[in-house]
Amino acid sequence: MNKTNFSIFATALIFSSSAYAQSNHGTHKIQTLNGTVERFLVTPDGEANGILLTDGTQVQFPPNMSDQVTAAINPHDAIEIKGLRQNAKLFRAESLMNAKSKDLVEISAPGEFGESRQSFAVEGKVQTQVYGKNGDVNGVILADGTNIHFGPALLERSDVSLDVGQKLKVSGFGTKSAIGLSVEASKVANE
Questions:
Q1: pLDDT of 17-74, one tens digit each?
Q2: Secondary structure letter of residue 18 according to DSSP
Q3: Whole-angstrom Cα distance, residue 167 to residue 25?
Q4: Are 150 and 186 in contact (CB under 8 A)?
Q5: Distance CA 83, CA 86 (A)
């Protein structure tokens, strides 16, 4: 390749890379979402790692931010969230603000999970499905507010229905705290 052809090739490569970066930047644009908190989504370690809004949107944040978020925001509070939409049901928060008190929580990097899990067996009706980043169901909230988490291997080996209104029997390990009961299922069945 001669010098002139290399220059043309390099210019075309830079231009196409720049155009690609600009076109994809729009899909990762920080957005503002307003809503009302229905409840917290709780990890099996007893930490909040998300919020379910009354319109069904799930707002995700790392569990190491649980104390800060639950100190600033309560169920039924109107909130403003800045972050990235992951899919139609899931929004990843970069900041959360209580609309009334103006308490603001800036989200930092994820933290480590605790070691406080206990054995639980629960049953109840599915009230809400909880979604992962790719739009797949990876958990449910039961009618009593219990958060149930499923690993992909458990759901692949099971023919259980996770539809809203279905009755579930779940056993696994988790944590009960002031913000709710959360269980990582090791066994799940429809009643």
A1: 333 333 333 345 789 999 999 999 999 999 999 999 999 999 999 998 999 999 999 9
A2: H
A3: 43
A4: no
A5: 9
Per-residue confidence at 108, pLDDT binned at 50, 70, 90?
Answer: low
What letter does residue 108 receive in the DSSP assignment?
A: -
CA distance 61 to 63: 7
Q: Residue 76 gets which letter from DSSP?
A: T
Query: What are the structure tokens assigned to 183, written together?
Result: 């269980």
The Cα–Cα gap between 63 and 41 comes to: 10
**Strands 180-190, 167-177: pairing kind:** antiparallel
The closest alpha carbon to 105, from 162, 37, 156, belongs to: 37
Pair type for strands 147-149 and 180-190: parallel
- Calculate the CA dihedral of residues 149, 151, 153, 154 and round it to 10 degrees: -20
Distance CA 81, CA 130 (A): 19
Q: How many CB atoms lie within 10 A of CB 45?
A: 20
Residue 26 contacts by C-beta under 8 Å, 6 or more apart in sequence? none
